[in-house]
C-alpha cells in the first residue's frame, strides 16, 4: 500500500477541481491511502467524496501562516508518506515539499530551485480548464485521465421544468473587494420572469446569500418560487438538491463545480473571471456574460486582485439571462 499525500490550499471550488487528479491516482494505486492537506474553510469537500481517507489542515490565511505550515510539516513527518503532490505554484512550495523528506515530490516548476528540490517539476499551464491544469501534476505517475470532477452523493430524480437558483458568492470575497455576481434586484427579476414562463423556480443558498435571498423574497410574490434557503444544512444536501434540478443557475462559486460534477445542465454568471479556465468547454455548462468592451476582461486574477468600480462585465440584464436559459 502506498501512502499518498495531496496538498491543495484554496477554496472549496479549488478542492472540487482538484478531485480528478486524486481520482486518477487512486485508479493507478487502488490500494493506496489518500491524505489531503487543505485549509479548514474547505473541509466540506470530504462530504462530497469517498476517495479521501484522511485530512490534514493548515489555516494559511490566518495570522500565523508559517506556524501553521510548521505544524503541518510535523504531521507530514509522522505520516511517513511515499508520494506528495502539491498544486501550489509559489516558489516556497518546492522548499516545503523538500522539507517533508518524502521520497517522491511532485509540484509545479517554478524555476531552478524547484527543479533541484522536486523529483518531478511539472510545467504549469494556466491557460486551460483548472481541473486539467491540476491533472497535469499526476501525468508522471498515471496514464489515467479523469477529465471532470466526480462526487459521491445519492442523486435524486430530476424534476421536470425546474430551475434551481443559487445566487450567492462568498462574503469573504466581497469583503476583499471581489464582486463576481449580478445585483440582487437582477436575481429577483430573473426569478419572477422564469416563473412567469412556466418554470418551477427553487431558491437555495447559505448564510452568505441571505441579503440576495431577502431581496428576492421581498420583491417576488411567494407563489412564484419555492424557498429552500437555509434548508440544506450541508454541502452534501445542497449537492443532492442540485441533482434534482433540470437546470441549475448560479454564480462563479463552489456550487458551480458541484453542478458540473453532477452533470446537471448548468448556467453560470461570469464577470471578471475567465470562464475558459473555470468550466469545461462543453454544451452542458453554459457561461452567461455581458457584451462588455472592457479591454481587461477577464481581469481576475491575472491583471487585478480586486474588481473595478464600474463592473461593466456584470451588467447583464434579467432578459438576457432568462432568454439564454429558455433557448
In short:
With 327 residues, this protein is of the alpha/beta class. The chain contains twelve helices and twelve strands. The radius of gyration is 21 Å and the shape is globular.
Overall description:
The chain is α/β, with parallel strands linked by helices. The protein has two domains: 3-138, Rossmann fold, CATH 3.40.50; 159-326, Glycogen Phosphorylase B (Rossmann fold), CATH 3.40.50. It has helices at residues 12-28, 65-79, 91-99, 112-117, 130-135, 171-175, 184-196, 210-219, 235-243, 254-262, 275-278, 318-326, and strands at 3-7, 33-38, 54-57, 83-86, 104-108, 120-122, 159-166, 200-203, 226-227, 245-251, 265-269, 285-288. The chain has a six-stranded parallel sheet with strand order 3-2-1-4-5-6, sandwiched between helices. Helix 7 (184-196) packs across helix 12. The model has no long low-confidence stretch (mean pLDDT 95).
